[in-house]
Amino acid sequence: MKERLQELETEALGKVEKSGTIDELKQVRVEYLGKKGPITEVLRGMGKLSKEERPVIGQLANDVREKISDAIDEKQTKLEDEALEEQLKEESIDVTLPGRPVQVGGPHLLTSIIEEIEDLFLGMGFEIKEGPEVETDYYNFEALNLPKGHPARDMQDTFYITEELLMRTHTSPVQARTMGQKNGTEPVKMICPGKVYRRDTDDATHSHQFTQIEGLLVDENVRMSDLKGVLQTFAQKMFGAEREIRLRPSFFPFTEPSVEMDISCKMCGGEGCSVCKGTGWIEILGAGMVHPNVLEMAGYDSEKYSGFAFGMGPERIAMLKHGIDDIRHFYTNDVRFLSQYHKA
Amino acid sequence: MLISLNWLKELVDISGLTTNELAEIITKTGIEVDGVYEPEDLPKNVVVGNVLSCEQHPNADKLSLCQVDVGEETLQIVCGAPNIRAGQKVAVAVPGAVLPGGFKIKKTKLRGEESSGMVCSLQELGVKEEDVPEAFVDGIFVFPEETEVGADAVQLLNLDDSIIELDVTPNRADALSMAGVAYETAAALDRSYELETPSYEEVKEKATDHVSVKIEDAEANPYYGAFVIKDVEVKESPLWLKNRLMAAGTRPINNVVDITNYVLLEYGQPLHAFDLDRFGSDKVVTRFAEEGEEIRTLDDKVRTLSSNHLVITNGEKAHAIAGVMGGADSEVQEDTTTILLEAAYFSPRVVREGAKDHELRSEASVRFEKGLDVNRVAQAGERACELFENYAGATILKGVAEEDHLDREEKEVRMETEQLNNRLGTDMSTDEVKDILRRLQFGYEEKKDVFDVQVPTRRFDITIFEDMLEEVARIYGYDRLPYTLPNSSQQAGGLTQAQHLKREVKTYLEGAGLSETITYSLTDKTAAEQMISPELKGEANGAIRLAMPMSEDHSHLRLSMLPELLRTHRYNTARQQQNLAYYELGKVFISEDEAHQEQPKEVVRAAGAVSGNWVSHLWQQEKKEVDFYVVKGIVEGLAERMGLTFTYVKGEVNGMHPGRTAIVHCEGETVGFMGQVHPRYQKDWDLKETYVFDLNMDLLLELYEKEETFAKIPKYPSVSRDIALVVEEEVSAGDIEATIREAGAPLIKQVKVFDVYQGEHMESGKKSLAFNLLYLDPERTLKDKEVEEAHKSILEAVASKHGASLRE
């Protein structure tokens, strides 16, 4: 019997060795280790053996069975690894081919600039106010110290609809409206972005429709130095910490004193270059202390309350920041223009 | 206003400063400098020559052969100018000279004759043609007889002058004169200046012996002064005067006109000279014109007047439109000998009306419109008399015929040192304030830090404390103000819910593949009234028209944003841009009254337009053209983002494909529409198949609710069932879905169309719609029986309502 078992072992290991596939290997397992297999048969015939021989042969039979089983397992792992290897090889792809495109849109450059400015002032505790684009003569002019026949009305060519209705020429009427809602008692701290309209012929530097952002702070004891501080904070966040600002006298009917704010030129660092026309400074916005007539018309006591206001053009800022040479780009909406400013 | 520095430096000490430094100081303290023009490209080696002889060139009809004495030598020069004569003093570019543009002068031969140099015109020396006196435009310039031979012509002609161009704001009309600029510069530099008082000899004969003045409307014309000047010799002005006019951009004409223009520049006061012999009477009467009254003005045009126009008359006939333009009949001419010189103050409003109605805005009318120094009106007349005496050989009659209603009082403004500091955030002492007032040359009385400032009449813009605040602040220096932050009541700031949501909507649409655009609110009438969303009722009253549009293309306020968005599509399509996906968040303007007299309702909308390929992934054979359902998916996603449920009903909108348009509803309200642009419109506009949506953001923002109570995550499994229904082809999937949801409630949680089929194996006129249904009870596991029951009632409902049968 011993010889028979050794014979079976050699035979089975030989077949394991020869098995080329997992199926063949399965066959070998069933053939030798199955319930009807030859080893089981040998064990069944153990009854004929003597007491002494029985454990010896039993042990041997188990050893043989284990050896065959281990050999099959080992071979199986090997075959599986080979199969996986083969599969991976087959599944290999060209990773340089383009991916399935996902449509990506983006904001208009002016919106990006406006939201950036909004966020700066929101951070300083300002609110955002909006108002009608078709305004009354009263809110667009009269409430802002520009009575009918005032020469400064010529500064803003206006699209009138009727004698009393017009396309707003600035966003300042939103300020007049907001102040008017406060009964002359509460402070105001707001910015108002929006579209405005002027009776201009469209060319590289003029557009009959453009955007503005204006700001207003009214409270007790507001000082001109506060205006300077707020504008500097804005300018440095918007244009870079190394920017300097300067204020110089100007004129707006709704502020007194009125100033214009320049920032030091980024291109030349103030030395003078073509961007700043040799002055070292670039004009960014107009500002001033709210005119007492404007405060009084909105119901504030101008002895007690004071305030400052400022206004700027997102188009101009965008053109300066990105070196855009023609204001019409913003309204032509050429995809090749728009998509340049889609990155976050 | 152009400021000649050669002129300015005779008024104020500006030594030690470069032109740019001076410009910088003027900008920082008061008036914006628009440009600085340094003499560049100046002619070199151009001297005064005396034309000794001038003969016809032997070989050329149009050339002269001249012998010109240039001091050190006499040169033979061939000259082509028609006005050259022997005895003239002329500008000669000697051999070796360089003219503007790098043009070098060399000895040469012209038609066989030697020519050593060139006799120059002003244009050749770099003067702008419009500033060149008429007499010299077509030829060489001729110096006055007494000019020294050999002198530097460049210097004599003031070509080495630097010019500063000021952009004078409407409040600083005082700076529209050399005197005003001199006061300003003196204050800025802390140097001195005072306008000199004119002086001349008066004869005994009085102006009032010759003319009387009568003003009919003292408000329109508070002051009128008439000087009478005799023995006037009309001729060329002296060179210095011409030079100053040319530097300021004014063309010299003759001494009479030049003197009035010169005083206008110097004093800021417009003057007018009438030929008294042609005036037709000894009375000056100023009055409003009769309706329809006519006047022939200096430009030889007959103008019809209205009762808004103030005129200067001789008692009967109008001889000038006040402050705007004189009449041709009393114009000063070569033979004029007696002048009536007007120095007047007309109300800004009256001059503005006249200038506007006759489209005659001039240096004079602008100054009247912006206001004049009441104390300088008559003085300017005197200054002109002084110049007439010196440069026109005139005799000045004593005094002035006038009528005077002007208030010449200086205004008083009170301010306190503390008040100034509180407003500016500064820490100025009363002495510093005093020093600023000294520089400004403002008088004042001060007691215990309280100032009563007497504002000179030349600064008529200053009337209230804030005006003085500005004066003090700008001379103190804005750059010296500290930087502070407002210690005003703290406010949190932050976006409102609507503002936040608008940003969310933008972000969503951009994530969905659309790019933001900004288009014009003003468009043409047709575009303005197309594709109006059904809930707006905008058709009823039409688009609002501007009173005076710049062009018909931008004449009406849009009622829909889509036509302008489609214009964008058209623009890009024409530039080979194939796949377009845009949106815009903007306003449309709905007039609620027929006459368009009231402020319109402004409605915020989100509109989009898409065309071309939505997906184009060719190497994996995937390509999807934009269709109705691509855009609908975007709209559905937006609804989901806002937590709203939209329903879609087939409908019609002007400009849209009638079979492919859905009206969008939300909670029982119409909130917009979507669909395909009408093929006819597409063809007219060269558009590819284009799909659009247009939603009323104002309504959606109203319907939006931020707060959501937490809904538990279901713990129990759902049961999925598929059904395929055969229905008539007109039956819409949306209707069946609604029926399924109604009949399957409350267990049915989701209904999804997964197949639509029509064709082979189907009866014609019928279609198959397959739905996947999901049943769920959040409280327990569903039993088969319950699902069966719900499923059965669904099948019954669709059968009875839509005639649907289960597909075999």
Automatic annotation (TrEMBL), chain A:
Single GO MF annotation: catalytic activity, acting on a protein
- Show where the Aminoacyl-transfer RNA synthetases class-II family profile domain sits: 109-320
Describe its assembly.
Tetramer of two alpha and two beta subunits.
Cofactor(s) annotated in UniProt:
Mg(2+)
Q: So what EC number does this one have? A: 6.1.1.20
User: What is the top EC class of this enzyme, as a single word?
Assistant: ligase
Record-listed Mg(2+) binding positions: E256
Reaction catalysis annotation: tRNA(Phe) + L-phenylalanine + ATP = L-phenylalanyl-tRNA(Phe) + AMP + diphosphate + H(+)
Report the sequence similarity comment from the record: Belongs to the class-II aminoacyl-tRNA synthetase family. Phe-tRNA synthetase alpha subunit type 1 subfamily.
What Gene Ontology terms describe where this protein resides (cellular component)? cytoplasm
Q: Which UniProt keywords apply?
A: Aminoacyl-tRNA synthetase, ATP-binding, Cytoplasm, Ligase, Magnesium, Metal-binding, Nucleotide-binding, Protein biosynthesis
Protein name stated in the entry: Phenylalanine--tRNA ligase alpha subunit
Cofactor binding, note field: Binds 2 magnesium ions per tetramer.
Instruction: Show the SUPFAM superfamilies listed in the entry.
Output: Class II aaRS and biotin synthetases, tRNA-binding arm
Where is it mainly found?
cytoplasm
Q: Name one GO biological process term.
A: phenylalanyl-tRNA aminoacylation
Q: Where in the cell is it found?
A: Cytoplasm
Which superkingdom, per the lineage?
Bacteria
Q: Which organism is it from?
A: Salimicrobium halophilum
Record's PANTHER family?
Answer: PHENYLALANINE--TRNA LIGASE, MITOCHONDRIAL, PHENYLALANYL-TRNA SYNTHETASE
From TrEMBL, chain B:
The segment(s) forming the B5 domain are 408-483
Which cofactor names does the annotation list?
Mg(2+)
- Explain how, and how many, cofactor molecules are bound: Binds 2 magnesium ions per tetramer.
Q: What region holds the FDX-ACB domain? A: 714-807
Recorded hits in SUPFAM superfamilies, A to Z, give: Anticodon-binding domain of PheRS, Class II aaRS and biotin synthetases, Nucleic acid-binding proteins, PheT/TilS domain, Putative DNA-binding domain
The superkingdom of the source organism is Bacteria
Q: Write down the species.
A: Salimicrobium halophilum
Q: Does the keyword NAD apply?
A: no
- From the Swiss-Prot or TrEMBL record, what is one GO molecular function term? magnesium ion binding
The UniProt entry lists the main location of this chain as: cytoplasm
The protein, known as: Phenylalanine--tRNA ligase beta subunit
Q: Which InterPro entries match?
A: aa-tRNA-synth_II/BPL/LPL (IPR045864), B3/B4_tRNA-bd (IPR005146), DNA-bd_dom_put_sf (IPR009061), Fdx_antiC-bd (IPR005121), Fdx_antiC-bd_sf (IPR036690), NA-bd_OB-fold (IPR012340), Phe-tRNA-ligase_IIc_bsu (IPR045060), Phe-tRNA-ligase_IIc_bsu_bact (IPR004532)
Family listed: Belongs to the phenylalanyl-tRNA synthetase beta subunit family. Type 1 subfamily.
Question: What is its subcellular localisation?
Answer: Cytoplasm
**Cellular component GO terms, alphabetically?**
phenylalanine-tRNA ligase complex
- Keyword Hydrolase applies: no
Show the PROSITE patterns listed in the entry.
B5 (PS51483), FDX_ACB (PS51447), TRBD (PS50886)
Chain sites annotated for binding Mg(2+):
D461, D467, E470, E471
NCBIfam families associated with the record: pheT_bact, YtpR
For this protein, what reaction is catalysed?
tRNA(Phe) + L-phenylalanine + ATP = L-phenylalanyl-tRNA(Phe) + AMP + diphosphate + H(+)
Q: What class of enzyme is it?
A: ligase
Sorted alphabetically, the keyword list is: Aminoacyl-tRNA synthetase, ATP-binding, Cytoplasm, Ligase, Magnesium, Metal-binding, Nucleotide-binding, Protein biosynthesis, RNA-binding, tRNA-binding
TRNA-binding domain ranges (all copies): 40-154
Q: What Enzyme Commission number(s) does the record list for this chain?
A: 6.1.1.20
Task: Supply the source organism's classification.
Answer: Bacteria, Bacillati, Bacillota, Bacilli, Bacillales
Q: How does it assemble?
A: Tetramer of two alpha and two beta subunits.
GO biological process: any one?
A: phenylalanyl-tRNA aminoacylation
